[in-house]
Specification:
Elements lengths: L3 H22 L11 H7 L8 H8 L4 E6 L7 H10 L3 E4 L5 H4 L9 H12 L3 E5 L17 H20 L3 E8 L12 H6 L21 H13 L3 E6 L7 H16 L7 E5 L2 E3 L8 H14 L2 E10 L5 H19 L4 E6 L31 H14 L19
Parallel strand pairs: 1-2, 1-9, 2-3, 3-4, 4-5, 5-6, 6-8, 7-8, 8-9
The chain binds ligand 9MR.
The site of ligand 9MR has 8 residues, from loops.
Keywords: Carbohydrate metabolism, Glycosidase, Hydrolase, Polysaccharide degradation, Signal, Xylan degradation
GO molecular function: endo-1,4-beta-xylanase activity
Protein name: Beta-xylanase
């Protein structure tokens, strides 16, 4: 006779199997460019760098395709060097240009690591972008500290922003001037100030989540942007996550750039909006291509650039259907940028799964969120990216959004 505990275990296994099937059902079958033998063969070299001049030619301006680097040397130095010579041509410092790294003591700057990343880029004939001059996170120990609001706005921020930007000089495509100011629980019709105050982050509170306001207006952001405008020859970027769709947080981004334009006199044609794009291969966890394109076009109408600044894309399970879904979504993000008139930078965050900030068990499916696996080997997405670049460089018309699945979008 079957014991009650065996019955419970059996029922549970049915539920688990049903749930797994349901999760799988949400992962559509997709059609990819690498299903076409021509693009499959072409993509095998993974030599995106050889295509970038042709991509730029079609765009009418240099197109920057890159990833992160940390100074002095990556654990896999040879692998990394090879990838920045053949696959990526653009570099951002993952942490080395942040405030804690560049000004560990007030007015005592240590720029060697940040400059080291820029130097590494130059050695690989790669371009460099700056991340970041103002963020509430990864601050040096002396901040928030005892600085007053007026000291912060009139001295601390201008000194920090100008020193870091000047040290990197002219060879920078863009700087993230302010990072992640806007609240995750923003609602439509909030003013830019409300969008920022609602985030409860320093310096509008003394500490993150604290209750004592240090500054009660956007003077700190204006200080960062006005300073950056004076010293940065490239684009000045507002960078944030969970943005790009038609939603309240993205609406806040538009409110904020309008505010910076009016009140800090930042010309729109000097501005960019960075869409970090830490996303997941599951409906609702990434922005569909059509929505991204609507947002990019709205920025283009203002004269503002759109940038994809920190893309990674976790998957729900490590199987073929999920790996192909990852390739389809990443390909759509790339196409959204390539076919937009105002998108010239596309940067991935972390080079391979073993060095990604997204790890298994941290609530992001099975992670595996970067373009190379934990051994540095390519995945379907790695080849699909190469194929998308090749297709764009050939002058082909934009194709449908592959993430929609084969019922709506078949490319081959
Ligand atoms: O990848 C960065 C990781 O090494 C740091 O520990 C972390 C600290 O918060 O920051 C990570 O990078 C973040 C970036 O600077 C801003 N957007 C979110 C990124 C991922 O957390």
């Amino acid at each position: 006779m079957t014991s009650p505990s065996t019955m419970v275990a059996f029922s549970l296994s049915i539920v688990v199997t049903a749930l797994a099937a349901l999760a799988q059902a949400q992962t559509p079958n997709v059609s990819l460019l690498i299903d076409d033998p021509y693009y499959y063969d072409l993509a095998q070299s993974l030599d995106v760098r050889s295509l970038l001049p042709f991509v730029s030619l079609r765009k009418g301006a240099a197109f920057h395709w890159g990833s992160t680097y940390s100074y002095p040397a990556a654990a896999e130095a040879n692998w990394t060097s090879e990838k920045f010579s053949t696959y990526w041509g653009h570099i951002v410092a993952e942490n080395d240009c942040k405030w804690y790294a560049t000004e560990p003591e007030r007015q005592d700057f240590t720029l060697s690591a940040c400059e080291g990343v820029s130097q590494y880029a130059a050695e690989h004939f790669a371009t460099f972008r700056g991340h970041n001059t103002f963020w509430h996170n990864q601050l040096p120990a002396w901040l928030p500290g005892n600085v007053t609001a007026s000291d912060l706005v009139n001295n601390v921020i201008p000194t920090h922003v100008s020193t870091v930007i000047k040290s990197l000089g002219w060879n920078v495509t863009s700087w993230d001037v302010t990072n992640e100011l806007i609240s995750d629980t923003a609602t439509y019709n909030m003013t830019s100030l409300e969008c920022v105050l609602n985030a409860d982050r320093w310096p509008t509170v003394t500490y993150d989540g604290g209750s004592t306001p240090l500054v009660t207006n956007l003077s700190f952001a204006y200080a960062a942007w006005r300073t950056a405008l004076m010293y940065d020859p490239g684009k000045l970027v507002y960078n944030d996550y969970s943005t790009g769709a038609q939603d309240a947080k993205t609406e806040c981004v538009f409110q904020l750039i309008a505010d910076l334009n009016i009140n800090a006199s930042i010309p729109y044609n000097r501005m960019g909006v960075g869409f970090q794009s830490h996303v997941g291969a599951q409906e609702g966890y990434y922005v569909p291509k059509a929505e991204l394109e609507t947002t990019f076009a709205r920025l283009a109408a203002l004269g503002v650039d759109a940038l994809v600044t920190e893309m990674d894309l976790w998957i729900q399970a490590n199987d073929t259907i999920n790996q192909r879904y990852q390739a389809a979504i990443w390909g759509d993000y790339l196409d959204a940028c390539l076919y937009a008139s105002n998108c010239f930078e596309f940067v991935n965050w972390d080079n391979r799964d073993d060095t990604s900030w997204i790890t298994p068990g941290d609530g992001h499916g099975v992670a595996m969120a970067t373009l190379f696996d934990m051994y540095g080997n390519p995945k379907p997405v790695t080849y699909e990216i190469m194929a998308r670049f090749a297709r764009y460089a050939e002058g082909a018309a934009e194709m449908c959004a592959t993430a929609l699945g084969t019922e709506s979008c078949t490319v081959y």
